[in-house]
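note to self: dont lose this again. the chain is below, predicted strucutre after it. 224 aa total, dont forget to put it in the shared folder this time
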Amino acid sequence: MLGLLAAGILLPTAALAQANKDAAPKKLYCWNENGQRKCADSLPPEAMAAAREEINVRSGMRTGEVQRALTDEERAAQAEEEAKRKTEALAAETRRRTDQAMLTSFQTEDELRRVFAERVNLVDNSINTARYNVASLREGLVTLLRTAGERELSGKPVPDKLAGDIRVRHAQLLYHTALQASFERQRAELDVEIEQIMQRYRELKASDAPGARVALDLPPAPKQ
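---
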């Protein structure tokens, strides 16, 4: 008796589930394969990564579209492009904040130039020290070479210690000469950097002037 009752309950439930399944709109999947359009009511494994359309069988209307899966190279390129976009956006925001900081922190060009004074003095001192070392090492090397030359001219052998000192002093001279050139290059680059920042400051000041802000339809600059 209980078995019949259970069967009586389960049969309508199963019938209802089947009816719902039959009532669900069936889909037709269409995709291109080797230049040919193919359609089926189920998607084969080889078409899973392909771009496809989903079409309602009853209405014949397209109900959805799935783009093809990206290749590893395309995913890498997409990630690189996204990283580039974020980096550029961050750089733009950093520049905006830097520009605003310049306007609010410095009232005149002289105030801004004083910020660079310490860097300029540091590089200048390094150049002067390098020049002194180069001159001193060159003078010492000339003395050692003269001594070695005089011994050779007099028919005497050049001692190993003297020859070793000449090699060491020559290596030191080459090193400090390269160091001097590096400091002088830094100084030239610093001059260019300062001039570029000063030019940017002048442009910001000009655009921040009341007349310019009205012409550009910008809000008034904040009071200091």
